[in-house]
Design a protein that fits this description.
The protein is built from 8 helices and no strands. The protein has 199 residues and is mainly α. It is globular, with a radius of gyration of 28 Å. The relative contact order is 0.05.
């Protein structure tokens, strides 16, 4: 039964990831990505790692996905973003990355087929996981934090540039309105002449 659930969750994760990569609408891709992360959490739970499954749901499917939603709302992609995504989804853009991903998949399948079924029979509590992360693996944790910070700075830069373009686009209209108002105030007699002619 557990084996059936494992392969079912794995298939859902692969399908949802593929759909997330091939959607032209960023919001739709985000929804499929959340489904993929939830399926990975089920895989962690079935492999005997409930703490990793909880972290997958709370951090990735929860906090990081909320950050993605904020970035999509801030960029306000709209129709232009969908058209650009459709251009990027053409086969000529996917040929070389698809070949490299296929090679890596074949290598992973070969390695997993030769690996033993159980790598470790020792259960770890959250305290042991924390001591391990901030002990021997502190360098990997710091590199991951720097990557997240770089992504946050990049999102802020993109959003600021988009807001600046909107301000530039609205400036000429405001200037024309100010100029028209100034001309009307400088020539009050023209309005009086027009009113006199009407009478």
């Amino acid at each position: 039964m557990n084996e059936f659930l494992f392969y079912t969750a794995g298939g859902i994760a692969l399908l949802a990831t593929g759909l997330a990569l091939t959607r032209s609408n960023a919001a739709h891709g985000l929804i499929y990505l959340i489904g993929s992360l939830l399926a990975v959490a089920v895989l962690f739970f079935l492999m005997g790692a409930p703490f990793a499954a909880a972290l997958e749901i709370l951090i990735y499917a929860g906090a990081i996905m909320v950050l993605f939603v904020f970035v999509i709302m801030m960029l306000n992609l709209g129709e232009s973003g969908e058209q650009q995504e459709r251009q990027w989804l053409r086969p000529r853009f996917w040929l070389i990355p698809g070949v490299m991903a296929g090679i890596l998949l074949a290598e992973m399948v070969a390695v997993l087929s030769q690996a033993p079924g159980t790598t470790s029979g020792v259960s770890l509590d959250p305290k042991a996981v924390g001591l391990t992360l901030f002990g021997p693996y502190i360098l990997a944790v710091e590199i991951a934090s720097m990557l997240l910070m770089a992504g946050l700075v990049g999102a802020y830069h993109l959003g600021r540039r988009f807001i600046a373009r909107e301000d530039v686009a609205t400036e000429p209209t405001t200037g024309m309105e100010t100029e028209t108002t100034a001309q009307a105030g400088a020539n009050p007699t023209s309005h009086q002449d027009t009113a006199g002619r009407d009478h």
